[in-house]
Amino acid sequence: MADRSFQGLWAAVVGCLVASLVGCATMATGSNAVGPPPGPPTPAGGVPAAPVQVQVLQLNLCNSGIAACYTGRSTAEAAAVIRAETPDLVTLNEVCRDDVSTLQRALADVVPGGAVVSAFQAARDGRTGDAYRCRNGQQYGIGLVSRWPSMPGSSAGGGIYPAQDREDPEKRAWLCLDVAATPAVAVCTTHLAYTKREVAGAQCRYLFGTVIAEMRARDGAAPLVMGGDLNLGSGDSPDLKSCLPAGSALVDDGGEQHVVATPEFVVDSSKTIDLRGTTDHPGLLVTLAPQAGNRTP
User: Fold this and answer.
1) 109-120 as b/e: b if 16+ CB within 10 A
2) Cβ-based neighbour number of residue 137 at 10 Å
3) CATH topology for 8-290?
4) Which residues form the signal peptide (predicted)?
5) Where are the domains of the chain?
6) Which of 33, 121, 257, 268 would bridge with 287, disulfide CB 3.0–4.6 Å?
């Protein structure tokens, strides 16, 4: 358990130069970003509609090469699951940067049209201020893979939480992306602190109360799905309930992983997937359906 478009190439270059002291880590279809991605147009009537169905696969691959749960086989197993299940969205925790590209190709293998995109956000190394690294030297953190392309004019937004465990060198991060489903949907992922529950709670409140709340408050806010390892217990945990917005759809794996969706969605089905000992977490596959009265026209 060891353990962010905005406009134009020049902005991306400047962003990376500014972020060089702390690790310019966010990547999505070739762009770098800081802050939540801009939203899609608001549909007629002003209320975002949910796609007919969204299937999200949450995975924690324990692939840093540092933690005791590392096997070196979890990325290949995850690729096999993605090819078998063909999810719309994949949320990834405890991955090296190249793992995200590998899993993007796995989804592209089974999704026609070639529109699959991915994004990555490194955790920060509190000892150096640079990106946290896997044992193989690659940046280490969290990722997203989507069968839908990113919204025109937007790419990934992510960052490092203000609340961190000072004794843990891995500084935890969040990552969000607007993708062009029909209509658009936003997807986020995160891996919260496991060392201190009060820190994980503060990070969870920041994610939903600040990052996601700002995304939801802007014009044209899309329905949003979040998959991640929240380290706050299962769905009946008071710590978890206290940080989730009212009306959220929620599924957990019976442990620390969760899929959370805004009220445009309800949970249609869910299951855990045995990853055959390649990591210390199962896969969590969740199918979300539109809330009654909120279907795509």
Assistant:
1) eebeeeebbbbb
2) 9
3) Deoxyribonuclease I; Chain A (3.60.10)
4) 1-27
5) 8-290
6) 268
User: CB atoms < 10 A from the CB of 296, how many?
Assistant: 13
Q: Which residue type does 159 have?
A: G
Where are the extended beta strands (E) located within the chain?
27-28, 54-60, 89-96, 117-122, 124-125, 140-146, 157-160, 170-171, 173-179, 185-191, 224-229, 249-252, 257-261, 265-273, 283-290
Residue pointed to by tokens 């977490």? 281
> What single letter denotes the amino acid at residue 269?
S
Q: What is the pTM of this model?
A: 0.85
For residue 9, pLDDT over 80 is answered with: no
Give per-residue pLDDT as tens, 159-209: 999 999 999 999 999 999 999 998 899 999 999 999 999 999 999 999 999
Residues 6+ apart with CB under 8 A from 84: none
Q: Is 215 helix (H, G, I), strand (E, B) or coil?
A: helix
